[in-house]
Write a structure and sequence with these properties.
The structure is a homodimer of 260-residue chains.
Chain A (H helix, E strand, L loop, with lengths): L4 E6 L7 H15 L3 E6 L25 H11 L4 H12 L2 E7 L7 H10 L28 E7 L16 H4 L1 H8 L5 E2 L3 E3 L7 H16 L41
Parallel strand pairs in A: 1-2, 1-3, 3-4, 4-5, 4-6
Helix pairs in contact in A: 1-7
Chain lengths: 260, 260
């Protein structure tokens, strides 16, 4: 396989942890396969999580502040802060992005959410192609078409709790705002979530199993089939962007937005 | 109605905005009804969003850092930082909590997620009642039983896009990690989400309609029926915490975790 660029974004503050070990495993495995790995270690970088007026070098004093408007102006005009620009460059250069985080309250830690809030700018990740009554170049189209995304998350719960009938809800449903609403929204091909459960008490034997399982996912990063989310502008949705009657077959819940 | 305490947590940086107006409306309406409103205006407070070792005054230098463990020790031993303690006191004193935020990437802005990540401590919001093979005092039980929660969110999208068949997914499904996985998890009675769509371009007439609609929700804060999520320990889940066969009737998707 030709060499690829992979951006690994990590939201964990302790290198001597399962997440630290998984990060090292990803770097080793992908590098051994001939790829180049760039790591954004958000805690180590002291990443600013909060999106605010300070993200733009030309924010007019006294103006009513509207983040999306400033983001549009800043992305287009080159007045975003350097930390945002650096992450956007990494993302644009990447063939695949891995988002790795412990599942906190069934979603991302704030520092990871803040990476998305600030890096996924208007004009780059959203706000594109709204001409002529069209609801945008999004959901399967957009700046990041051709790139792949993998979410790797560790949870303290048990695998059964994260099945569709499990008390927490299914992991793919819980992360739908990220897989579908964020990554697929910007055009990325999103792979099924890789969850490592019971992460607070892995034995050495369990870690051996989990690391083998993760290595497999990493090896298949460019060959595994992505989640077949339906494209917004692919004919499955009507003009009000509701799924057309019957298109979903026997699927229910959020799975109706998948084409399989 | 007897006077109640309401905690309003706001994640918006611009007072001269729809969110600013909605915040003022909530204060006015609830105060006029004889209630006491405490506001945590996270941007104005410069709330620290990132959960890290700095959240504890007694974190041993050089130790492998594990947030949940430090949170347990800090909550029990009184070594959390003052900003966390202050929010916990507000939450404990509240009869209802309103979380108000613009929907960014189909979830909370990082600053609001960081409020949950840091304030919802081990021993207060999670990590309770794991004795004897039991999977915790959670999902309908916990420290916050008897309190109510309302999520108020503004979106730039259209209402049809947030229906179950809408291209974004249904708003209740998108916010399930917050309503079910966070608020109900800690024992709160969670009201149906109050979403204000098309928020970037409300006319005066539309604002009049939306403010009347919100005022109704505020007036019914203590009388509206909460989402009837199933209690973890109420008999609907088996020992592996999977919903027992057939319990859901005709419900599908994440709605199987509701009892209606």
């Amino acid at each position: 396989m030709p060499s690829k660029n992979i951006l690994l974004v990590l939201a964990h503050s302790e290198p001597r942890s399962l997440n630290g070990a998984l990060k090292d495993l990803a770097i080793t495995t992908l590098t051994a396969a001939g790829h180049t790995v760039t790591v954004s270690d958000l805690y180590a970088m002291k990443w600013k999580a909060v999106a605010d007026a300070g993200d733009f070098t030309d924010e007019p004093a006294g103006d009513r502040f509207y983040y999306a408007r400033s983001s549009a102006r800043g992305y287009k005009g080159g007045t975003q802060t350097a930390d945002i620009v650096a992450e956007q460059k990494k993302l644009i250069a990447a063939d695949a992005v891995i988002l790795q985080f412990p599942l906190w309250w069934f979603s991302m830690p704030a520092i990871m959410k803040g990476w998305i809030d600030r890096v996924f700018a208007y004009g780059l990740a959203y706000g594109i192609g709204y001409e002529g009554g069209r609801y945008g170049t999004r959901y399967g189209e957009g700046s990041f078409v051709g790139k792949r995304a993998l979410i790797v998350t560790t949870t303290g719960g048990q695998a059964t709790h994260f099945t569709d009938r499990g008390v927490n809800g299914g992991i793919e449903d819980l992360l739908f705002p990220l897989t579908h609403g964020t990554l697929f929204y910007t055009g990325l091909d999103v792979l099924p979530v890789h969850a490592i459960n019971g992460s607070n008490r892995l034995t050495d034997e369990q870690y051996a199993i989990e690391s083998a399982r993760y290595r497999e996912r990493l090896t298949a990063l460019f060959t595994d089939a992505p989640i077949p989310f339906r494209k917004q502008n692919g004919g499955d949705y009507d003009e009000a962007l509701r799924l057309k009657p019957g298109v979903e077959g026997t699927a229910t819940g959020l799975s109706i937005h998948r084409g399989d």
